[in-house]
Amino acid sequence: MQDYFYSLMDYLDGQLQAGEVYLGYFSGEQSEFIRFNRAKVRQPGSVEQRYLELELIEGNRHTIGQLALSGDRAIDEARVTTLLWDLRGQLPHLADDPYLLYAQTVQSSETVATNQLPNAQELLDEIISTVAGCDFVGLYAGGGIFTGFANSLGQRNWHSSFNFNLDWSFYHDQDKAVKSAYAGFQWNSAEFADRITQAKQQLEILKRPARSISPGCYRVYLSPVALHEIFNLLSWGGFGMKSQRTKESPLLRLLKEPKQRLHSSVTLLENTADGIAPAFQNKGFIKPSQVALISQGEFLGALVSPRSAKEYEVVTNGANEEETPTALDLAAGTLASTDILSTLEQGIYINNLWYLNYSDRDACRMTGMTRFATFWVEQGEIVAPLNVMRFDETLYHIFGDKLMALTAAREFIMEASTYDFRSTNSIRLPGAVVDDFTLTL
Amino acid sequence: MQAIKQRFQQIIPKVDFCSLRYVEKRSEILSVRQNIAEPPLRRDDVGVMITVIDQGGLGYAATSNLSQTGLREAVTQACDWAHRSRGRMVVDFTNFTMPHSRGDYATVVSKPWESLGLGEKLDLLYQEAANCQIHQTIVDWKTMLWSVQTEQWYFTNEGGEIHQTTQYLVPNIRVVANAGADTQYRTLGGHGYGRQGGLEVLEQIGFYGKGRQLAEEALQLLEAPNCPMGCMALLLAPDQMILQLHESIGHPLELDRILGDERNYAGTSFVTPEMFGNYQYGSELLNVTYDPSVAGELANYQFDDEGMPAQKVYLIREGMLLTPLGGLMSQARAGLPGVANARAASWNRPPIDRMANLNIEPGNSSWQAQLSAIETGIFMQSNSSWSIDDSRNKFQFGCEWGQLIKNGELTQVVKNPNYRGISATFWRNLKQVGNQDTFEVLGVTNCGKGEPNQAIQVGHAAPTCVFANVDVFGGAA
């Protein structure tokens, strides 16, 4: 797809009029999706899609069009030409945009991956045979993901990857289940089998009679996967320059005097170098390897899109338009994995959280549910699965005065989201033991 | 379109069933933030999905390559998947017949999106944005129009042919007020104002002049005390009723959730197949319908994406649970009746059970009668926060606007109003249902579920409603 995209952009170079600049951003994928339920196939299929985002700029006026490409050169040249004419026709109706900013220093780059994924037949055979006899439900999503940038200044960037993400659950009964995932770039049958075995072992504990507890404050362990849900919510306006300047950030109290602070063990980065997403974005800027967001509990920096950079007169760090992170990295703590249960002593071992939202955004107080394998722990031993509970707690407790420890071991999680396209976001997180965690329902 | 139809007819494989679903979607987003126009964004998306069912297997392939070669490759891929999945499907296709329907549908539009030029539409947004800037504590404000026009064709191997064109408009206004570490928001209907139609929707929903009203309300919230905590009567506006309906009736009634398809992602349901026909879901005042025929509602259509004709069905009548939200395949799997709600977000995602239009039928109570019946309670409006467990039972919702009710009258405005409850008991405390005068047509434009994930627009219409004994609370101190 790289040659195809570049040649289409070369064609576009020849269609521009004097004084015009274009920015072209390509996103494509060749995906195989196999949906499972009850260890059988529910919906299997393939999706091949290619999209071009074309931004036309003349002076300080600009407009954007997105187009599905067919992959046929003649058809796509015609579509791009029509789009270009339509965009050109819009420009006279637009005012100058004082916040327009795009990269004007050419920085080309190329990351080309090799496809090492198994073929669909072998994969399906292996999954079906390995999970036989279990109530297995989930999705295999795999294949190539292709991202490109080009502009009329001559910059060309390309990033391709071939990865898979098998996101699944083993169910015991009703809502009692073990959730797991196997994601990567090269399928390893032994590793897959090992993960299945581990999940089956956890499933045995879920077969014990479930316990219900009353609302109240409990000591909890939040696994890296559970913390991922908290960071997904925080990413919704938490780290962007615009939400901070417009006072909409849920982390506002880290910024406004008298400033609050989190626990000194909390250090958070946007770690692009360690992630799997492209390091370039749709205005042509290259992201730095790392952006420090929180250091030892204190706010340090924000993700800054080109538009915010112009509006607030700061330097962009190549953030996307929404200023959402793509590769968060929370520093490890010191708690050994073998000491989690003894530190918890009596409380709740939470593997998964679900459906988080703010109950008081200003106070960064969030609510959500426990889900899948959540266990009641007594005297440092898991004794029973727990029926689902609702929590309502502020981040200033979870990562502040109620944080007891972060684990030394961290988990690298590849985002399984497939809305519109397969996500290339990732996150690296430890687990956390938190005291007096509030459960409400 | 005739060319694609002919290409499809030339490459139909010898299988039990084959369909081509063509989707062409054009959307445009115009926005003005702090009196400055953001760059217009238009999207032109087009592609097809080929679906094959053969000898017990099913497969799909989606492509944006509409040439003979592209369609032929998609047919081959779909056949390959049907072959691979044969004998391994969770759905038994042995006695299963797909419909080969013929028909069409088009949204009624009185003022097309194109009837105003780009500059004129931006002027509307500039004007409303300027109305928002009434005080220095208004720190951000934005006005927006999102137009979506879709043309869809559906052909089958035995002559089925459906043509449907829809248009909808989603206007929005968002105002942010701040003082110190306190930030309050007001939006147009909690983002719930989307309707099929053209620019006439703006007048229907009272868009003009709303900017100033929302800004004034945001300032009032900034001055207001936190919502008190307690168990009290709750009067919900339609723009919160639709979220309550969506999360705690709509999702639990989706048959694919009940059948377990969504257990790894969107979740399961506390509703089981045995409950249909004999479970009292709510009080006798509760009447819930799947209705693809309410003027302007977002998910109006004649056929779903598997070719099933759509018609109004009571899901809950006088509180009794009757019918699930399940399309043809789910109905066959569960042995239950259902509705025409197998829908796909676009050409690149397969159909699954969705809500489509899900409504609460109006009752007999006037707005004044509802208020008068409340001695101590609270009125909440415009959803701002939503969370519910994966069985769709334990919920917690927050609203932008709260106002206390004392002795039948609206009194003190309060900020950060929240309430929580359990679906299985909450609806049984439904005490009053507003009449037609309180009934509003709204919708949700980003309902997410499915693997692979799909976000789709669903329509909701509801009157104001009163619930007794609700656990209400406010923000942190």
List the defining traits of the structure above:
heterodimer, A: 441 residues, alpha+beta, PmbA/TldD fold, seven-stranded mixed sheet, globular, B: 477 residues, 2 domains, nine-stranded mixed sheet, 39% strand
Q: How would you describe this structure to a colleague?
A:
The complex is a heterodimer of chains A (441) and B (477). Chain A has 10 helices and 18 strands. Chain A has helices at 2-13, 73-90, 120-130, 189-206, 224-234, 241-245, 252-255, 306-312, 340-344, 395-401, and strands spanning 20-37, 40-58, 61-68, 109-111, 135-151, 156-173, 176-184, 216-222, 268-270, 291-295, 298-299, 327-330, 347-360, 365-378, 381-385, 390-394, 403-414, 426-439. The longest helix of chain A has 18 residues, at 73-90. The radius of gyration of chain A is 24 Å and the shape is globular. With 477 residues, chain B is α+β, with helices and mostly antiparallel strands. Chain B folds into 2 domains: 2-223, PmbA/TldD fold (2-Layer Sandwich); 230-473, no CATH class. In chain B, strands 1, 2, 3, 4, 5, 6, 7, 8 and 9 form a 9-stranded mixed sheet that branches. A 7-stranded mixed sheet of chain B has the order 11-14-13-12-17-24-23, with helices on one face. In chain B, strands 10-18-19-21-25 form a 5-stranded mixed barrel. Chains A and B meet through strand 1, strand 2, strand 3, helix 2 and helix 3 of A and strand 2, strand 3, strand 4, helix 2 and helix 3 of B.
